[in-house]
Every structure is written in structure tokens, then in C-alpha cells.
Design goal:
alpha/beta, 45% helix, 9% strand, globular
Length: 266
Amino acid sequence: MIPKISYLICATPRCGGYLLFEALENTGLAGKPGEYFWDDKKWGDKWRATDYSDFLNKVIQKSTTPNGVFGTKLMWGYFEKFIGKVRQTPHFMNKDLSSHDILNELYPNLHYIWIMRRNKVHQAISLWKGLQTVVWWKRIGDPEPELDKEPEYNFKAIDYLAQEILYHEAAWQEYFTQYNIKPFTVIYEDFVPEYEATALKIMDWLGIDYPDNLEFGPRRLLKQADAVSENWAARFLDEKQEQEKNNENYSPFPNSSWHKGISNHV
């Protein structure tokens, strides 16, 4: 099926992308968005894709609802790698196209949805915990994961990840500015209490028809932040303020003009 409407969810790690997947898929009319390009070999093997072109076609097949709406997710961390692989497929190999043109040709009537999390410290903590536990989501009814050990607090790791998130957001902003794109912006903290309303606003923006009495599928994803997350956030902010007071600001991106200090993004 060739989609009639396409959208990309542009994201950074742990910004609420999976919750947005669920909300849109639960409409039954807004595609079945997933994240397939970060581990394309795994999904290609699972779907028995014969090559990367076939894999790209299977992503569309898996992620399109019967009304012709397609959606998927891209994170800046693997954006260029993904585009590079697309350029090597027979269809694009001899075409001198920008990343934007490639995406427009891949996905008809393309729209961009940009999801961000206002609290970068909590986002970085969620990412740091996920990297240690490899537990990226919890669903109602799932058994509790068995951990080899509990995740450990690390100031430099959280600080690095928070600044990397800011860097990737700045890269998305630059992409949107370069190609004069006005994405539909979703802020995680505003989206959580407006789960269904946000999905309906996106459908209106995309031009998807739906009945007035649309019933959403059941919510299954559970919140993962806990008392440990809150304690780490308080500890991190204390240490960050002390570091800045002593002019010991640690940054993995010292030459980036956009960086204004993590304490300004909480």
C-alpha cells in the first residue's frame, strides 16, 4: 500500500515517543508508528527482508493503517546513518537529493511531528537508567524485569546525556529551519495529561477523518519514573549548581553555542 498521508515522529531518547506511538495507534486510524531504523538488521531479519529496499517497504506495510496513514519514528542519533543506507538503494543511488528530498520521496504527503521533553534532567536520568537496565518500557500485565543489579547514579553520565539531548534537539531545529518545516510540536509533560486530546489534535492537523465518537484502544504503557529518579534529579541539580559555582562546568560539546547550562532546562 502506498500511504496517502505520512508522518515522521522526530525524537530524542526517552522523550515520550513510545507513549505517543501508543496514543496514535490506539486511534486505529493514525498509522502504527514504530522505531525500526536504529536496529534495522534485527527487524530486517525478523521480517525476512531480502535487502534494504525490501526492508523499507516492509516498514511501510507494518506501519500503515487501512485508511492509508503511515507513521514512524526517527531519532537524530541515527538520522544520517539511515539516510546513508537509503542513498545506497537502487532507487536513490544515482540521484543527487538532499535528506529532505529523500524523505519526501520515500513517504508521500510527509508531515513532521516533533516530540520533546521539557525537563532534560529527568529525560537524561531515564536514559541513564535504561542504558544500565536495558528496560525501555513497562506495560500493564508484563512481569517485573529481573535485573542483574540496580542502576547506579553517575553525575558525569547524566550531565553528558542531558547535553547530548540538547545537541540533538538543536540539530532537529536546524533541519527544520533549513527546509522551512513547521512541525507539530508535542511537549511530553503537556501530552501526558492530554493523551487522547493530543492524538486527536494531531489527526486534525494531518487531515485524518475520524468519527465524533472515536473510541481509543486501551492504554498499556506504565510510567517508569520513580522515587529513585526524583532522588537522582535532586542530587544532580545540587551537584550541578556546585560545579557551576566553582566554574567547573563539564560539557562534551564545549564549542556548541546553543549550550546554556543544564540547570536552565529543568
